Amino acid sequence: MIFSFLCVVSAVHGQSGVRINDGTAVVCAGAVQMVVSGDFVNNGTFNPSNGTVYLSGDTKQNISGSGNNTFYGIELNNSAGADLASNVVITNELSLNSGLLDLVNSNLTLGTGATIQGTPSESNMVVASGTGELRKRFSGTPVSDDSDAFTFPIGTNGAIAEYSPVVMNFKSADFGPQAYVSVQVADTKNPFFSPDVTTYIDRNWVIEPNDMSAFNYEVKLYYTDADIILGSLIEGDISPIKYSNGTWYEPQGLIPDFPDAVEQGSAFIFALSNYMVWGDLTSFSTFGGAGGTGEPLPVELFSFSGECQDGASLLKWSTASEYNSSYFDIEKSDNGFDWEIIHSEDAAGISTSLIEYEFVDVNKFYNTTYYRLNQFDIDGVNHYYGPIEVSCDEQSRLITFPNPSEGTFNLLINDQRFVGEVNMNIIDAHGKLVGSKTLNVLDGINVFPWYDKELEEGMYFILLSTAQNNATLRHVISE
């Protein structure tokens, strides 16, 4: 049964809200308004047409449910804020007038034509207290000026709320049908910095692409006065720097520089306005800010992977180099939130060559098991890597093996979403297409070998696509 609902709830207050039950469809008619003072729970079908949902409660509100939470527009007018408990898509407009929109562990995706309204600040912005990502879809052909630049209105809400947006401006790119950029920000320095880095921005941004290649872009990274940590240098000596797939990148002409970093693009810091800008970039990953010290940066974890082997979890990780490393803790979880230490492994201490580690967990959980690494330095400083997930459920699997590998590896497909003609593209860490193949996938387990001794050492993204579905796998080539 389908109910036609005019989406006007102007008299709902306090704990009242909107609940769409399983098997129920709510269809809005035209540019109507839905004013909600409580939670929005969708376990059925919601068609917003071109109407806007106004979150105008007096206490914190939630958007949740098992249904497809796609909105035309959302306007937040609640100083108590709102939390996401399910993934949300906004196709037209997100208005941030009052309150923090916390993604928690869900993703908020803004459509290709979606815009941000209001005046985002530390009191009205998007934050993520968990693993949630703010995503923006991209399509078409980028223009060379700044007219299509997009501002991610994101920040952190720790001891105090701090607004630190990211501005993305593509100069060129080939966008696939599922192209988007995801952004996360944390109120701590780049986790890959060594203790030798004493002048830095106490904030890091994780920016990742999806379904795009041949990109060149400029990024602006905003920080606050409280983020500035000065050692022997001054704020003007700080430059953006990033860690991507085992490699450090720095802007060209950085003096003093980081000797083991690869130069890419050019950058400036605008100390009076509290932002760094870095242009001509051709790779993504974890961004931070630091003053050059003439000392090498630690190239730490090279890979961390897991797979099911005879009903147990085989975990492998490798380091390209180690600096005063002490040991690794392996932690596991059945939900990705609650963790327990199951094994400790001594580290190398000092190393400049590739070292491989592995551990077998014979007591994995029945379904999907999550793992993460906690690496401790000799001075007690620790860094988390992961999490990754391992599932022994053979009903649906997309994996490459062995991983890491040399130029030869295998792609296993056992997934109903990828049956028939499947396009396989291999993208390197710089976004360059380095290989492609059309696969004829049958129902059941399929294994396709890939032979290419020319692939250089590093991280690669394997993009699988059909007319309806897309997936991205990560594969490491190690010589």
Structure notes:
With 479 residues, the protein is an all-beta fold. It has three domains: 2-291, no CATH class; 301-390, Immunoglobulin-like; 397-477, Immunoglobulin-like (Sandwich). Helices cover 0% and strands 56% of the residues. The strands form eight sheets. The protein has a 23-stranded mixed β-sheet that branches. A four-stranded antiparallel β-sheet has the order 33-32-36-37, with no helix packed on it. A four-stranded antiparallel β-sheet has the order 41-40-43-44, with no helix packed on it. The termini are far apart. The relative contact order is 0.08. Residues 8-15 have low confidence and may be disordered.
Q: Secondary-structure map with pairings?
A:
Layout: E1 2-4, E2 18-20, E3 25-27, E4 33-36, E5 40-42, E6 45-47, E7 52-55, E8 61-64, E9 70-77, E10 82-84, E11 88-102, E12 108-110, E13 115-118, E14 124-127, E15 134-137, E16 150-152, E17 154-157, E18 161-163, E19 166-186, E20 200-201, E21 204-222, E22 228-229, E23 238-244, E24 247-250, E25 262-263, E26 266-270, E27 275-281, E28 285-291, E29 301-309, E30 312-319, E31 322-323, E32 325-333, E33 340-346, E34 350-351, E35 355-361, E36 369-377, E37 382-390, E38 397-401, E39 409-414, E40 420-428, E41 433-441, E42 446-450, E43 458-465, E44 470-477
Parallel strand pairs: 1-3, 2-5, 3-6, 4-7, 5-8, 7-9, 8-10, 9-11, 10-11, 11-12, 11-13, 11-14, 12-15, 14-17, 24-25
Antiparallel strand pairs: 15-19, 16-19, 17-18, 19-21, 20-22, 21-27, 21-28, 23-24, 23-28, 26-27, 29-30, 30-35, 31-34, 32-33, 32-36, 36-37, 38-39, 39-42, 40-41, 40-43, 43-44
